[in-house]
Amino acid sequence: MKLIEARQQFISSWGAFGTHWGINRTMAQIHALLLTSPDPLTQDDIMEELDISRGNTNMNIRELINWGLVERVLIPGERKEFFTAEKDIWKVVKQIVKERKKRELEPMLQLLDKLENVEGDKRDKHVKTFIDTVAGIKKLGRQADKSLDVLIKAEENWFMGTMMKFFK
Amino acid sequence: MKLIEARQQFISSWGAFGTHWGINRTMAQIHALLLTSPDPLTQDDIMEELDISRGNTNMNIRELINWGLVERVLIPGERKEFFTAEKDIWKVVKQIVKERKKRELEPMLQLLDKLENVEGDKRDKHVKTFIDTVAGIKKLGRQADKSLDVLIKAEENWFMGTMMKFFK
DNA sequence: TCGAAACTTCAAAATTTATTGAAAGTTTGG
DNA sequence: CCAAACTTTCAATAAATTTTGAAGTTTCGA
Predict the structure, then answer these.
(1) CATH topology for A3-85?
(2) Does chain B have fewer CB atoms within 10 Å around its N or its C terminus?
(3) Over 80: is that where the pLDDT of B11 sits?
């Protein structure tokens, strides 16, 4: 398979993959493009490669920067801004975990705390089922939260090495 | 907070939560409704509680059954079918991990295997960056795949207990 | 300070995804 | 076997999301 073809397939699959994870297709494709690009690209490069509009490109680059996955690069003597993606996949994973934890897991845990204090008699099976379900999710959620904190701080070699050894 | 209100909030939040994870709102809401329901419900109960159409309800129940999160229950003397959700959250998590691994991670790894065999000279930095990126994702992906296999087979107490102790 | 290049914004349009509801299909009990 | 009760399907519709592109703003060099 030729590079051009392989790269296109990677970009397109990464985009489709992203949509299963609540990330929009274009954002994932821009990320894939930058991940496989040896040098930083300009907004115009990205527009052209992916055949998307200026506005769309701009918005999604900005969003990738918010996620900490892409950064602006200034190239001396160039007026335009260039963009580059973090290539160390372990760092990428940690960054995504960190953001999603903050944006999704933590608010959910806060909500569950509130919901657990529902009024009513636990002898009522409706009340009991509700409280037990919420408590169960909360317990697992808190454990996951702590485990993810460790992952976020860990070095790849240590974390993965230990995981593999540990779980044989 | 009253039960009715708390439950509505739970259902609605679970639905919103689902949309960030590639699960449609209604499917997540039906799941939340069943999770917090002490007894099995019929399709009509679900339609009424969530105020959605018969077709929509039916499709999403079927999808939840495909995911292994909900099952049909036959109640003696009743003509209608009843549905109930697995209440053990650890089992729910394992089931979701198992399905997503199969549906998403495994196909992605297969693709990466193929893409890594791109033609070309590694001294070309475009080729090199592409191969290195793909290889990096693949390596981490394979490790994640194995770790998830362990999780899927594990008991909650063992797994979470070890995680917490281990990572202190 | 000005002008052009670069960047950002956002309302409207296009696309994608979810939902409805009526028709077709099944199952069950008499 | 028939009719009633229930379930499933799917084309049409509605809703949500993404994309566009042109107008507006900022930045930089001369």
Answers:
(1) Arc Repressor Mutant, subunit A (1.10.10)
(2) C
(3) yes
